[in-house]
Amino acid sequence: MNYEKYSPHWQEQVREVADGVLGINYFGKSSEIAREPDTHLIVCIDDNQLLGFALGRLLPKSGLRDFLEHRVDFVPEGFDAADLAGAFGVIQSVAVAPEHRGKGIGTGLISRLHDILVGHGADKMIATFKQGPSSSRIEGAMQQIGFKYWLRLKTNFQERCDQGEFVCADRTEKCNCEAVFYRKTIY
Description:
The protein is an alpha+beta fold.
């Protein structure tokens, strides 16, 4: 099993895993995967098969509240300074194919992406996960890497899913997912 930086070679397999785990059309166009500035995508590969991926980025200066869709009034101490300095990292998506869960792949992806974001200047970080009825439990892995639970939010996943922008695997009559956030102070 190897972890490596994303290249377009993995584009279709990343999209397949994302569609199966996060919802059909989660990425929209394949060409838009990891296209935003300061975005990093790590993939886990075994025998030329993509097992999972993690996507994260450094937010632009003062970008935290936009990322949180202006739904959070309180941010932990020190987070505002990191946000103003452009030193705020976000792990936004982690997906492991269901048949490969429980093998430490997600933890490995998160850990490697964490290190890349810190290496690019992040001194505070959050990780967000779409949590639905069939989602994996991530709490233990996050604690192992030093993250602490922060909050749960209804999120634009619901709005996008309810509008048919993408189709979530956990969808019933309407979207039943929420975003779960973890936080970490590096420095």
